Amino acid sequence: MCGILAILNIRGTEVDVRAKAYELSRRIRHRGPDRSKIIVLEISPGQYHVISHERLGLVDLSDKGRQPFQMVDDENIIFMQNGELYDYWDVRSELEKKYRFSSNSDTEIVGMLYKEYGAGNFWNYLNGMFATVLIDMNKKSFQAGRDHIGIVPLYYGFNEDRSLFLSSELKGIHDQVIEVKQFPPGHYIDETYEIKRWYNPIWHDFNHIPTGEINFQELRDKFVEVVRREIQGDAPFGLFISGGVDSSIVAGIVAKLIKKGEIDLNKRGMRKVHSFCIGLEGSPDLHFAKMVADFHGFEHHSFTYTVDEGLDYIPEVIYHTETFNNTTIRASTPMYMMCRRIKALGIKICLTGEGSDELFGGYLYFHKAPNRVEFHQELIRKLHDLHKYDLLRANKACLAWGIETRPPFMNKQWVEYVMQIDPKYKMINAFEPQMEKYILRKAFEDLEHPYVPQEILWRQKEQFSDGVGYSWRDGIIKRANYLISDQEFSQASIKYPISTPRNKEQYWFRQIYSSYFPSESAVLTVPFARSIACSTEKALEWDEAFKKNTDESGRAVLAIHNDAIKEIIQINEEPSTEDISKVQEHFQL
């Protein structure tokens, strides 16, 4: 993962154009602290394409892996990428029969795939997470695009001269363009300035409700293969373990791959796998994460912070994550603090569990999904928006410190496989015990050779911003109430007519955000729909109580479990205190 910046069709002198690119690229250097490189290309007298790359060395750590690349066989093909291509070695074995390589960098295959499959078509052969820019000086053309689901961020905009600006982060170009926007995932843009879709899977169709059967062994095998591919690289890696089922499954797979000799720690300069978790003292995540790490013999780091320390970081967290969304900031702050500590250990890559809840309906509000159709359609909505929330957080909060995060659950082939499973199998009442993400948990239940301790495998979902400690959310609200007066908040709609804050926490976050990114278009890059426990606004229709309590915290839907208790113990009347205690203890409620 790195930082990229491009200015296409810009007029001026070569010296001025290069200076402009350097100035803007320096704003995102935290994403690639290892090396920088700029290439300026004159496409007509006084008109240029310029691309700049800020490198975080992860694959081929030598200077040969430095970007932007020029093809060995055609130096008029110039390209750069922010991200990783996971099937690099498989693809390379075929491509090197026809093309010459100058490095072992996964990015080098981009130019060859472009030559092999042509403009527009080659995007379908990029398997990984990426934001990519390619220039073909033979045709004076270019291509720029983003991965299938938006794991890697990309922003764009045009200035008054219709020069196209592209940047890994908003801060790179927000004050250079008339209107800055997030580049849509699964799309690319070319010299016509038309944004075109390259990724159009069947799961994008709201009217298509899949009917695929569930095969637990196949489900397990496919995800193990995903993790095996995504752990590849040359730099030391680590694991984010929250103590929830998703990150714990990833950790369990890595542990087994090491035992089988499929991961060579010595080659990566590692003695042991380092795992990481952060929370307030005594928080549930710290306890369960350590349990997972101890189970596998990892070198575990439990970082703690105080509410006041977290509050101190919020302004810089908003600057780096480029959002004022409540749940994103609540969760980004401890992650940002954790990555500062990880950086000091020399770790550059960490695997995470992001995306599983959107594939399997893991959030607590899914208990209220009325039927399989609405359940599946909500999954589609969640996946379409994930680049604005958890994927944005995991990328930017970590790359602020030069740490790349890889979310295996968002692998393109894996997403397509899981989204063809009949949603009836993902619903809470599909199996016993009734629990969110049952099919994922069951697929990785191996009593003889466990991937995950049983207690963790069947632990209830905790949102990251809750799992680090409930007093974190309460502390944010208390600080916002102190900083923002009633009089000030009463003027919210006047001061912020677009995405008007609905509470003082939102007002405080928005106030900080607008001090960095004041334009209206920058505000519109941030999602602002109503939500309960990370739902989309549409899902509020599932329950009258949702409409009255639109709090993003997972605590907002704890009552759902009391309703579920009635079904679990098969009674119609309200459960007794003894019944509730018994079932809540079982489900870690």
TrEMBL record:
GO terms for cellular component: cytosol. It catalyses: L-aspartate + L-glutamine + ATP + H2O = L-asparagine + L-glutamate + AMP + diphosphate + H(+). It comes from the Eukaryota. It comes from Paramecium primaurelia. Pfam families: Asn_synthase, GATase_7. One of its GO terms (biological process) is asparagine biosynthetic process. The keyword Amino-acid biosynthesis applies. Residues 2-194 form the Glutamine amidotransferase type-2 domain. One of its GO terms (molecular function) is asparagine synthase (glutamine-hydrolyzing) activity. Its EC number is 6.3.5.4. PROSITE patterns: GATASE_TYPE_2 (PS51278). Pathway: Amino-acid biosynthesis; L-asparagine biosynthesis; L-asparagine from L-aspartate (L-Gln route): step 1/1. The keyword NAD does not apply. It is an enzyme of class 6 (ligase). Keywords: Amino-acid biosynthesis, Asparagine biosynthesis, ATP-binding, Glutamine amidotransferase, Ligase, Nucleotide-binding. This is asparagine synthase (glutamine-hydrolyzing). The lineage of its organism: Eukaryota, Sar, Alveolata, Ciliophora, Intramacronucleata.
